[in-house]
Design a protein that fits this description.
Layout (H helix, E strand, L loop, with lengths): L15 H4 L3 E2 L1 E6 L5 E6 L2 E5 L4 E6 L11 H9 L1 E6 L5 H6 L10 H4 L4 E3 L6 E3 L4 E12 L6 E12 L4 E2 L2 E2 L7 E3 L5 E3 L12
Keywords: Oxidoreductase
Organism: Tritonibacter scottomollicae (Epibacterium scottomollicae)
InterPro entries: Flavin_Rdtase-like_dom, Split_barrel_FMN-bd
């Protein structure tokens, strides 16, 4: 099968998200200029640089009570900061609950039954108990082709690691089983690892 996206795929559901998998989930916490906490999961998320460490996430839709975007991007525009909370398998239901399209004045931490605690280096909340959290300062927001496609890049200025996930100096993802996004309504958890040595190592 071959198709041009502009012509449509002719399938019951768009296969694009199922092709580009698995994708890590950036559980993005922000705080509005008025002090309201927000929390939302984004599967268009990844690390993009080592030095200084940098990450990105993309927002691809809008809300009626925001100007052409969603709460996360609107809050980051106001404050210049955000936090990436790493989602473990045990928090899958809370993550899913926080994805609801709620009014911009609603605190998703409370809606999902999560404890919000303050970050160390930025004026933003983070999710208590996550395996890791990355405190970020905005470097830029880029508009992509499409009605509401925006990418936020941030420099990581603070890193939280849960102590039980550190084993002999290694951050062991099998201790918490990171959740990843697949296509359609599907997810996966990482529980098995294998290593490969590069030819030039």
């Amino acid at each position: 099968m071959f198709y041009r996206p502009e012509d449509g795929h002719g399938l019951p559901h768009n296969p694009f998200n199922a092709v580009v998998t698995p994708r890590p989930i950036g559980w993005i916490s922000t705080r509005s200029g008025d002090g309201v906490n927000n929390l939302a999961p984004y599967s268009f998320f990844n690390a993009v640089a080592y030095v200084p460490p940098q990450v990105m996430f993309a927002s691809t839709s809008t809300k009626a009570d925001q100007d052409g975007t969603k709460d996360s991007i609107a809050n980051i525009r106001e404050t210049g900061v955000f936090c990436v909370n790493i989602v473990e398998y045990a928090m899958r239901d809370a993550m899913n609950k926080s994805s609801a399209a709620l009014d911009k004045g609603t605190d998703e931490f409370a809606h999902a039954g999560l404890e919000a605690i303050d970050c160390e280096t930025i004026n933003c909340a983070r999710v208590a108990g996550v395996p890791a959290a990355l405190e970020c300062k905005l470097t830029q927001i880029i508009d992509l082709p499409g009605e509401a496609n925006k990418v936020a890049f941030g420099e990581v200025v603070g890193v939280h690691l849960r102590d039980d996930c550190l084993v002999d100096g290694i951050f062991d993802v099998t201790r918490y089983q990171p959740l990843s996004r697949l296509g359609y309504r599907d997810y996966a958890k990482v529980s098995d690892l294998f290593s490969l040595t590069r030819p030039d190592d």
